[in-house]
Specification:
By secondary structure, the chain is mainly beta. It has 2 domains: 339 residues, TolB, C-terminal domain (Neuraminidase, 6 Propeller), CATH 2.120.10; 107 residues, Immunoglobulin-like (Sandwich), CATH 2.60.40. 2% of the residues lie in helices and 39% in strands. Strand 14 and strand 15 form a beta hairpin. The longest helix is centred in the middle third of the chain and has 7 residues.
Length: 494
């Protein structure tokens, strides 16, 4: 049995927790820190979980891609025994739900709808259209993903292109982001979207979404929905003829170029804050959830967690803003989910609810659909906590004190960089690869970080850092995850 011998004060939070010692020969694994519990779903129902929100009374609403909404009780605690009731049926591919002021707001394929149980029998009996200013034509790919309400009460909706590639005349605003106000006004807010998989907020309330690899997307990415910003795919630019909210129709990018080059020609082009290298981080990123649990989920407050459909896992993202643009690093976090993860939501107890489907695309998790919960055990994993860019390198912080000797050893690290072709063709291999030289590794005095001076950093490239030699202080324990992928869009000022 693992011993727990001392309390440490984590430098980035106010809580103290137990830390495992090294007396076992077995190295720690993900489930030592974040075990996954499978929750039962209504018997006989096919629930491809596509949306999750927390209701009053600690109830949980889940939507199914197939158009049903269920409300569950008793999903939390040490021995959850969910009890489910049907709240609504017959909706059209629900990909976002949000509770506010007694209404459940539903983003379905053709519209944002709000629904309510007026007579108190547990089943919705009022359905009101909030906004439906975009079009659909029955195409398989015309998804609409919606957020919860932002600080102004707006819901942000991202619209997949027709067939993930075209802007159909019968379906206006495909490939755009629409902001739906509480009054039902639909405001075109951004463009250049290809095939989104999910949308969410950071801790400051700014909106991000995941776009999947494909036309004009060399690899899948986490993207920032800056109002008026161009997300990279020009197919939907034709809809500028339908609105003057964002100004005149912009010029189109040059196929075969690079994002970093095209930024100089297209001032509205927003570089992806974090590229999610295809096949390494995943193949189909989806929902986005920000840790605002106040330490109930461990040491990652204000960081983002990204669901991954194909690889059936969750990744972790640290973001920083440099010269007005977001950028940062993605880290592996947790794998082994039962199905393809589509969405995640933190409960009031700090646990993470996840749900998904293999949708016919296939996923590493073999179940057709699932609803699961991730709890933090109270043990702190030995991980890179943050990775920040400096004018001449990167500064890393850790969740636990690291061994100074291994931190200072240059052989503890390797780094390579690469980017992707920005083109109208599907995807891209890694191109323009370089091998920067880590010239100095300077540990922080408290062992909680290291400064890596790097010669040969490349703007516009993913910087893939591996740290196989780093060890926790007083042990042989390596980092739980030894790789980070930092997308360098901007160098900070000296």
């Amino acid at each position: 049995m693992r011993n727990f011998s001392f309390l440490i004060s984590f430098t980035l939070s106010t809580f103290s927790i137990l830390v495992a010692d090294d007396r076992s020969d077995r190295l720690p694994v993900e489930s030592d820190y974040y075990p996954i519990t499978t929750l039962s779903l209504p018997e006989g129902e096919v629930i491809e979980v596509s949306g999750i929100d927390i209701l009053p009374g600690n109830k949980v609403a889940i939507s199914s891609r197939r158009g049903d909404i269920f409300v569950g009780e008793d999903l939390f605690g040490d021995k959850p025994e969910p009890k489910w009731t049907i709240f609504a049926r017959g909706l059209h591919e629900v990909l976002g739900i949000a509770w506010m002021d007694g209404w459940l707001y539903v983003t379905q394929r053709p519209e944002v709808t709000r629904i309510k149980d007026q007579d108190g029998d547990g089943r919705a009996d009022i359905f009101e259209t909030v906004a439906d200013d975009w079009g659909i034509n029955g195409d398989y790919h015309e998804y609409a993903f919606g957020t919860r309400h932002d600080k102004n009460g707006d819901i942000w909706v991202i619209l997949c292109l027709t067939g993930s590639a075209k802007a159909d005349d019968k379906s206006p605003f495909r490939g755009w982001c629409m902001r739906v106000t509480p009054e039902g006004k639909c405001i075109p807010t951004g463009y250049g979207i290809r095939s989104p998989g999910g949308i969410g907020f950071n801790h400051e309330g700014e909106v991000f979404y995941c776009d999947n690899q494909g036309l004009w997307n060399g690899s899948s990415s986490l993207k920032h929905l800056r109002p008026g910003g161009f997300q990279g795919n020009p197919a939907g630019n034709k809809y500028f003829d339908l609105t003057d909210v964002l100004g005149p129709k912009p010029p189109e990018p040059v196929s075969g170029s690079r994002i970093e080059i095209e930024r100089k020609r297209l001032p509205d082009l927003v570089p992806p804050p974090v590229v999610l290298p295809h096949g390494k981080v995943g193949n189909s990123p989806a929902g986005i959830e920000c840790d605002q649990t106040g330490g109930k989920f461990g040491p990652f407050q204000n960081q983002l967690f990204i669901s991954e459909q194909t690889h059936s896992k969750v990744s972790r993202v640290f973001l920083e803003k440099v010269n007005g643009f977001y950028q940062g690093a993605v880290f592996p976090f947790l794998s082994g989910f039962g199905s393809g993860n589509i969405v995640a939501r933190f409960g009031k107890d700090g646990s993470m609810l996840t749900g998904g489907t293999n949708r016919g695309w296939g996923s590493w998790g073999k179940k057709a659909f699932s609803l699961q919960r991730v709890n933090w055990t109270g043990k702190i994993p030995f991980e890179v906590h943050e990775m920040r860019v400096k004018p001449d390198g990167f500064e890393l912080s850790f969740t636990q004190e690291a061994d100074a000797k291994t931190l200072a050893d240059l052989t503890s690290y390797t780094m390579e960089t690469y980017t992707y072709i920005y083109q109208k063709g599907y995807g891209s291999p890694e191109v323009d690869g370089t091998v920067p030289v880590i010239t100095h590794a300077i540990p922080k005095g408290d062992g909680m970080g290291v400064y890596l001076r790097v010669k040969g950093m490349v703007k516009g490239h993913v910087h893939e850092l591996k740290m196989p030699g780093v060890r926790r202080k007083g042990s042989r324990q390596p980092l739980l995850h030894e790789v980070a992928y930092y997308t360098l869009n901007e160098f900070p000022l000296p």
